[in-house]
Structures are given as C-alpha cells and as structure tokens.
Amino acid sequence: MDFHRAEEILQSRDVYEVLYKNDSIWINSLNSQNQTAEVTLNGSSAKKIVPVTELFEVNKQTDYM
Q1: In sequence order, which residues have a C-beta less than 8 Å from that of residue 51 and are 6 or more positions away?
Q2: pLDDT category, 59, cuts 50, 70, 90?
Q3: d(Cα 62, Cα 14) in Å, to the nearest integer?
Q4: Strand, coil or helix: 8
Q5: pLDDT range class, residue 65, cuts 50, 70, 90
Q6: What's the CA dihedral at 36, 40, 46, 49 to 10 degrees?
Q7: 8-11, Cβ contacts within 8 angstroms, sequence gap of 24 or more
Q8: How many angstroms separate the Cα of 14 from the Cα of each of 8, 10, 24?
Q9: How many other C-beta atoms can be found within 10 angstroms of the C-beta atom of residue 9?
Q10: What's the average model confidence in pLDDT over 12-38?
Q11: pTM assigned to the model
C-alpha cells in the first residue's frame, strides 16, 4: 500500500479491511518520515510498527455508524 492510501484509510469514517502478512489489522497511526504504521492485530492488543508498503487493502468496505 502506498502511504497516501494509508492516510486516507486512517482518516476515513468508513472501515476498511487491511492485512499485514495475511493478518487483519487496525491502523493506529502513521509516521511519514519512516513510512511506517503502528498497527494492532485484530483480536489482540499486540501492537507493531510495520512498513506501510507491507500493508494490503482488501476490497471490502463497511460503513461505520
């Protein structure tokens, strides 16, 4: 994923399914200098710092209410 798309997803009111190494994640924050994202693995409280280029958006969108 490119950094700009990660920013769009983070700022959106909609919920997008994003994967990191085939694990569903939630993007918590982004670091533009390092081009990294702090993510939380869904179903866990484990947080990781990962390269944004290793994130993959699944073509699925759910409206957030």
Answers
A1: 35, 36, 37
A2: confident
A3: 6
A4: helix
A5: very low
A6: 0
A7: 9/57
A8: 10, 9, 16
A9: 20
A10: 95
A11: 0.84
